[in-house]
Amino acid sequence: MHHDKKFAIVNPSKMCQPMGALQALLGIKNTMPLIHGSQGCSTYMRFQLIRHFREPIEVASTSMNEKTVIYGGEFNLMKALKNITEKQSPDMIVVTSSCLTETIGDDMAGIIEKFKDANLDKELPVIIPVSTPSYVESHVEGYNRTIKALVEHLATPSVPNGKINIITGNLSPADCKQVKDLLCQLNCDSIILTDTSENLDAPLTEETLSLYDEGTSIKEIEDTANSLGTISLSKHVDSAALFLEKKFGVKSISGPLPLGFENTDQFVTSVCELGDLEIPKSVERDRGRLLDAMVDAHSYNFHRKVAIFGDPDFVSGMTRFTAELGMTPSVVCTGTGSKRFKEDINIISKEKGINPMILAGGDLFDMHHAIKEAGADILIGNAYGASMAKEENIPLLRVGFPIFDRLGAQRISMLGYRGGIEFVDKITNTLLDFYYDEAGYEIVDEKIEEIIGEEGDEGFEEDFMAQEEI
Ligand code: SF4
Prior knowledge:
Layout: H1 17-25, E1 31-35, H2 39-53, E2 60-61, H3 66-71, H4 74-88, E3 92-96, H5 99-104, H6 108-118, E4 126-130, H7 139-154, E5 164-167, H8 173-185, E6 190-193, H9 218-223, E7 229-232, H10 239-248, E8 251-254, H11 261-275, H12 281-301, E9 305-309, H13 312-324, E10 328-334, H14 339-352, E11 357-360, H15 364-374, E12 378-381, H16 386-392, E13 396-398, H17 416-435, H18 446-453, H19 458-469
Bound molecules: iron/sulfur cluster.
Iron/sulfur cluster binds near residues 18 and 98.
């Protein structure tokens, strides 16, 4: 049961804005994120990030407490900026607000100016404030605002660079790498906003924890004003692209996430059109391989009901991809009350002849009810779906953030043709594990026999036979 007006959220399927800001900032070279708020915020966020990526994560906090809240956060923010500048010498400090400091209305930009004025004799890092009020929107909007703030402060027109800016959104490091590799195959020079591929999947070294020496540089962000265009992989993080288009005439293309066959085709077309590039043979062969994998998997995936939750562009991309695989998306849920998401799902539903229950701004409590109503053979989402899957006795394919109950979240990839192939194997093998016996025959459970036997559902029988014949 889903009500339009909600009075409480139970098991949210989203996180707060500063978390999205951090996800963006962890892909930038030698940069320190500073959360202007109580220590609990940064501790909670570091905890989530560390148990997902299994990498050390540096996040600073202005450590606000009861006293400082009353007098305002100026003293704490100035002190934090001083300490970080002296001890870590970053190229940049990005200050994000939190529930607390938004509520007391601290003027972060004003305090930063005061800090700069008080330190005119010193070489200071670039300092950028981002307003990320956590009680509205979600981590996706936090990500969006952060990239926009970076570009607004740094983008500087000079000479055309022939590059394409890519705003990735919150991807796994492996997916970030998939996108970079695909661009490399296409001979496309790019600026990745932001590049987490090395920072969040780093080799073990003996060096002590310090700021990242890989990722997107400030120079690259400055250069985004001189690019041929910007492609935002997630439609919900395109504010920086729209800013660059308006201010510097850098063409903006919003989405879709290159997830699945058609969406990757669209991404490749966008890149080739913007960059005036030809599709090389190697990309065509990867495309053919994905098609081949989809055909091989079809008899196992066909008509399986799938429930999907996560970030809006991931869920709409995954809805299309699973429909391409012949599956039936039955429930799709995102934590953001996004119109764009609903529009996307409606378009996909029309094209693919599906009719999923759409929960935009939904929580996992709603989702569980919807699954009971619409049914699902498999659940796709982050680790918070585990208990729901267990209760419904269906497998959970872990994708998204956070995944803390399995290893290798940083290595999960599903974007592009190559990532798509990995995903097809993974979802099909999950279904094989769960619904097929060791000889490869489908385990027809009582539920299915009931449908065939008692109701004599001809359509189902036909589908079942068709599935057997393929
Ligand atoms: S919701 Fe607010 S209090 Fe909680 S971690 Fe986010 S910023 Fe901090």
